[in-house]
Amino acid sequence: MNSQATLDDTFAVPPEASAEPAASGRQTKAEREDHKLEKRLCREVGRAIVDFNMIEEGDKVMVCVSGGKDSYAMLDILLKLQARAPIRFELIAVNLDQKQPGFPAHILPQYLTQLGVPFRIETQDTYSIVKRVIPEGKTMCSLCSRLRRGILYRVAEELGATKIALGHHRDDMLQTLFLNMFFASKLKGMPPKLASDDGKNIVIRPLAYVAEKDLIRWAEVRQFPIIPCTLCGSQDGLQRVQVGNMLREWEQKFPGRLDNMFTALQNVVPSHLMDPRLHDFKGIKTTGQADPEGDKAFDPEEFAKAVSAPVQFMARAPKDEP
């Protein structure tokens, strides 16, 4: 069996997990819906792991847990997949206590202890640094992110972690795409897997295929002890918040639009953009042969009509090449 087939088997939802719950008079509609949601989350996280080769035999994955719904769900689903995976990999939860006033420092250690997962709480007073450096009323996200990133890279090295897992989801990735277009003049999103800027770490985003609405529901189902962010999460008017509101409004008016946009991130045509670093426009010559994928310069583009229901993601056959 080839290595890709092994990966597919590793993170596939097994028959017993895929089957519908047995009919029972005691089972409510809500319970059936919760079961479907769990299956969907496991399937989408497993698919992302396979598609981008996020987790391999012997990996030690440092799961960054902030106390928000996304990171709780990521750890929860990774533990479920780890329990049935035929390959061996470790999970260790890491939280950075930034000494924000009123931060309930007891909640995460208590939760992680009850869960039985190895964890480390790293305490660093980045809050005071950010408050001292950033003028009142200005957004703190950039500096806070840089400080947090440096600390987590160091902790990963100390733990011997081979992967760093972050809890960004599909909606985060779309928000980043539009933020870069609107405010940085770049066609750049948020990758599902990358080598860190220090060159020493591999960062993965197992929730890449997961919609935020599913994470909100799962947090309610699992009753995670959510810790609100009082540093940047409470700042009104952030560009990311504005873009997020725009995307949610689009989805309400045009169901399926976010799915289509996300699929577009995996269906890029460099010859139909304008970056000469990605396509040799200057060197274009006629070949004398018809190309079914070639541009029909004088024909108007044809688009499918707006759908009334979200487009379902379909698993594609994995490629042999990296």
Number of strands: 6
How much strand content do the residues show?
5-15%
CATH topology tier name of the domain at 54-265: Rossmann fold
Report the mean per-residue pLDDT as an integer.
Answer: 84
**Assembly type of the shown chains?**
single chain
- Gap from first CA to last CA: 18 Å
Class per helix and strand makeup: alpha/beta
Sketch the major β-sheet.
Answer: 6 strands, mixed
Sequence of strands across the biggest β-sheet: 3-2-1-4-6-5
What gyration radius follows from the Cα positions, in whole Å?
22 Å
Give the second-level CATH assignment, the architecture of the domain at 54-265. 3-Layer(aba) Sandwich
The residue fraction in helices comes out at 40-55%
Shape: globular
The topology string of helices and strands comes to: HHHEHEHEHHEHEEHHH
Helical segment count? 11
Low-confidence stretches: 1-6, 15-23, 307-322
How would you name the CATH homologous superfamily of the domain at 54-265?
HUPs
CATH domain class of the domain at 54-265: Alpha Beta
